[in-house]
Structure formats: C-alpha cells, structure tokens
C-alpha cells in the first residue's frame, strides 16, 4: 500500500468515527435541551460523512455491488468469528459489564448481517420482490420484511424497530 493510500485509510477511519461521534453528541445535546448545539453536531456529522466518502472514493475502495457484498460478508464474518469473541472474553475477564453487553449485541447481530448479505449476493439479479428492513434501536438487530414481536437479541418490543424503506 502506498503512503497516500495509508493516509487516506487512516483519514477515512477518523472521519467515519467523527461522523458517528457527532451524531451521538447531537442526541445528547437534544436531551440536555441545547437544540442549536445539536444542529451544529448534526451539520458537522454530515460534513464528516462527506469527507469519509471522498476519502473512500479517492482510495478507489468502492467497487461494484457484487464485490462490495463479498467484502461486506468477509468483514461481518471476521467480526463475529474472530474479532468480537476475543473482545467479549477480555471484557468478561475484566468484569466490564457494559462493554461485554455492547460487544455481545454487535457480535450477535453481525451474524445476521453476514447472512443477509450472503442471501442478497445469491439473489442479486433474480429477486424482484421489494421489502423494507427493520433495525433494533437497542442492539442493531436487522431483519427483513417485518419487525419481530420482540427482538431475538435484546428482547425489546418490535414496535420500537426503525424501518428502512
Ligand atoms: Fe472532516
Ligand atoms: Fe454488521
Ligand atoms: Fe435488539
């Protein structure tokens, strides 16, 4: 990898993190009643998303959808097979309860992501059906077509799931 690509990759990671961080900060500002500060966090979050996307394009890291699906499957699979299990073990060993829960939620959901991506890759050119996805606001559980009665990962009511149309 060239120095430039290394720099772009590092900058992409930083911008992507800043995007999510500012989105979370915006929610916190709303909770505290600072609506204008919340707006600023949302605006900066949007700008960081633009930067992240620009870096990714400069890296030529966005391929065709088939290849992108394969990359997504590999990433999710690495997370639930190698990355998260080790992290969960370490958190458990340190008695870090909140970390263990957060990591375990993600670990459980990445398996579903890998499966959804796999099915999408298989049916990419043949499936004509159109349907929404539903995402759990607590654990990120992702399901297609309709929300479950209760979340199979965290147990929250299905009516809380967010629809992706
Ligand atoms: Fe930025
Ligand atoms: Fe995932
Ligand atoms: Fe959930």
Helix content: 55-70%
Write down how many β-strands occur, each being a DSSP E stretch of 2 or more residues: 3
Q: Count of helices?
A: 4
Q: Give the structural class.
A: mainly alpha
**Multimeric state of these chains?**
single chain
Please state the average pLDDT score: 98
Largest sheet: 3 strands, antiparallel
Taken as a percent bin, the fraction of beta residues is: 5-15%
Distance between the termini: 38 Å
The SSE order reads HHHHEEE
Summed up, the domain count is: 3
Associated small molecules:
fe (ii) ion
Residue runs with pLDDT of under 50 for 5 or more positions: none
Shape: globular
Strand order across the largest sheet: 2-1-3
Task: Indicate the radius of gyration in whole angstroms.
Answer: 18 Å
Short description:
This protein is mainly alpha-helical and 165 residues long. The chain has helices at 3-31, 35-58, 65-93, 97-123; strands spanning 133-135, 142-144, 162-164.
Can you walk me through this structure?
- This protein is mainly alpha-helical and 165 residues long.
- The chain has three domains: 3-58, Up-down Bundle (Ferritin); 64-128; 130-165, Rubrerythrin, domain 2, CATH 2.20.28.10.
- Helix content is 66%, strand content 5%.
- The chain is built from four helices and three strands; from the N terminus they run H-H-H-H-E-E-E.
- It has helices spanning 3-31, 35-58, 65-93, 97-123, and strands at 133-135, 142-144, 162-164.
- Strands 2-1-3 form a three-stranded antiparallel beta sheet.
- Strand 1 (133-135) and strand 2 form a beta hairpin.
- Helix 1 packs antiparallel against helix 2 and helix 3 packs antiparallel against helix 4 (97-123).
- The N and C termini lie far apart (38 Å).
- The mean pLDDT is 98.
- The chain binds fe (ii) ion (3 copies).
- One fe (ii) ion (FE2) binds at residues 76, 110, 113.
């Amino acid at each position: 990898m060239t120095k430039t690509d290394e720099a772009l990759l590092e900058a992409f990671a930083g911008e992507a993190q800043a995007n999510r961080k500012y989105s979370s900060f915006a929610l916190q500002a709303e909770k505290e009643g600072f609506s204008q500060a919340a707006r600023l966090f949302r605006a900066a979050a949007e700008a960081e998303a633009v930067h992240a996307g620009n870096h990714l394009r400069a890296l030529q890291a966005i391929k065709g959808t088939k290849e992108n699906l394969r990359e997504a499957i590999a990433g999710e699979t690495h997370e639930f097979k190698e990355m998260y299990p080790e992290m969960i073990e370490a958190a458990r060993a340190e008695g870090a309860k909140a970390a263990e829960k957060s990591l375990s939620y993600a670990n459980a959901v990445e398996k579903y992501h890998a499966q959804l991506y796999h099915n999408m890759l298989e049916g990419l050119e043949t499936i004509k059906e159109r349907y929404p996805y539903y995402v759990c606001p607590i654990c990120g559980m992702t399901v297609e077509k309709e929300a479950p009665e209760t979340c199979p990962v965290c147990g929250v009511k299905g009516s809380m799931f967010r629809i992706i149309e």
